[in-house]
Design brief:
It is found in: Nucleus. By secondary structure, the chain is of the alpha+beta class. Helix content is 31%, strand content 23%. It has a domain of 72 residues: Orthogonal Bundle (Arc Repressor Mutant, subunit A), CATH 1.10.10. β5 and β6 form a beta hairpin. The chain is elongated, with a radius of gyration of 20 Å. It binds acetyl coenzyme *A (ACO) and zinc ion.
């Protein structure tokens, strides 16, 4: 999905069925023309194929043998699993996921070349299978050091900490690559809120531990957060002063504690010991 200049089109599909949820959509998504007359679409929650009628889905579910996203399970902790799907090896799945995601993403247009992306799909697993909660996409090679292209938590799962989990996960991958990363712009309002929340929590925890005696470069090395994002976050928190042509961190312990109290819940943590992954080559 890519930034675009077009105005937002009217939305077409108003509801989708996915697993045990019926979900109201938010935005237009450019499904193939034959779906233009549909108000509701029925998705297979595992392969993400979509159909016009409930009976078609029921027939599909009897023969679909997927019980989780295609690709490699690279993380498992309790009932949470993360799957890495290569858009080149699973083109149809990648395209289906993009169609689905666009229903909840504004300011992005469908980027058809799913070959160039990896999809990280977060699932809650039970005895019926692994149910998609959300995902993020990532370019295999990014010139701009983007470590995340699009992020989505499906509406029934929002506001439970999954978004920050996905963001944390994207930075854990960057740490394993030995690179800094930043999300592709523009960010949506909810995207910005989630990133601000994540950056604030992570940076405040480190500043507290080091009693503020640390540079932006060191913070960036430790967290894989790009220096610019650290600077804007600390500026928003009023923890930066400009002295002799340089930005310096001024972390008064009282100010830190005040911010830490206000910062959101830590929420779902990524347990790095459960991540089994090598960078894409
Ligand atoms: N109202 C106010 N604040 C919110 C809301 C909301 N509805 N939703 C999230 N936030 C803020 C809060 O600060 C929250 O932290 P807190 O609960 O500790 O206060 C923080 O964001 C993160 O909340 P999570 O529960 O971790 O995030 P969630 O699972 O809801 O996912 C996401 C966030 C992915 C942005 C989700 O809202 C979403 O999918 N939105 C639609 C798609 C979208 O806009 N994606 C981002 C586009 S930008 C890009 O892709 C690069
Ligand atoms: Zn299926």
């Amino acid at each position: 999905l890519r930034e675009h200049e077009e105005f937002t089109k009217v939305k077409n599909i108003s509801t989708i069925e996915l697993g045990r949820y019926e979900i109201e959509t938010w935005y237009f998504s450019p499904f193939p023309a034959e779906y233009n007359d549909c108000l509701k679409l029925y998705f297979c929650e595992f392969c993400l194929n979509f159909m016009k009628r409930k009976e078609q889905l029921q027939r599909h579910m009897r023969k679909c043998d997927l019980k989780h996203p295609p690709g490699d399970e690279i993380y498992r902790s309790g009932t949470l699993s993360m799957f890495e799907v290569d858009g080149k090896k699973n083109k149809v799945y990648g395209q289906n996921l993009c169609y689905l995601a666009k229903l909840f993403l504004d300011h992005k247009t469908l980027y058809y070349d799913v070959d160039l992306f990896l999809f990280y799909v977060l699932c809650e697993c039970d005895d019926r299978g692994c149910h998609m909660v959300g995902y993020f996409s990532k370019e295999k090679h990014s010139e701009e050091s983007y470590n995340l292209a699009c992020i989505l938590t499906l509406p029934p799962y929002q506001r439970k900490g999954y978004g920050k989990f996905l963001i944390a996960f994207s930075y854990e991958l960057s740490k394993k690559e030995g690179k800094v990363g930043t999300p592709e712009r523009p960010l949506s309002d909810l995207g910005l809120l989630s990133y601000r929340g994540y950056w604030t929590r992570v940076l405040l925890d480190i500043l507290k531990k080091h009693k503020g005696n640390i540079s932006i470069k060191e913070l960036s090395d430790m967290t894989a957060i790009k220096a610019e994002d650290i600077l804007t976050t600390l500026q928003t928190l009023e923890l930066i002063q400009y002295r002799k042509g340089q930005h310096v961190i001024c972390a008064d312990p009282k100010v830190l504690d005040r911010h830490l109290k206000q910062a959101g819940r830590g929420g779902l943590e990524v347990d790095v010991s459960k991540l089994i992954w090598t960078p894409y080559k």
